[in-house]
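User: Structure please.
Assistant: Input sequence and predicted structure:
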Amino acid sequence: MHFFGLAVLVGNYAGLDNLTLNTASGLYLFARLMYNYFYINVLIADLRTFAWVTSLFSLFTSSSNQLN
């Protein structure tokens, strides 16, 4: 959760618009919830990996949008 908090703070400091920051934050939280669900209930590791990669992608998406 430290990276999530830092990514939100950096996004605010960088001046990202609210829609982008809220979308990336929501995607991250949803992906982490899905990761936990897959970890507890589903034995298919590929689904857990997809959820984990999606959460990381959402963290970096907000910062890459600011570079353009």
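The helical segments are 2-14, 18-41, 45-67.
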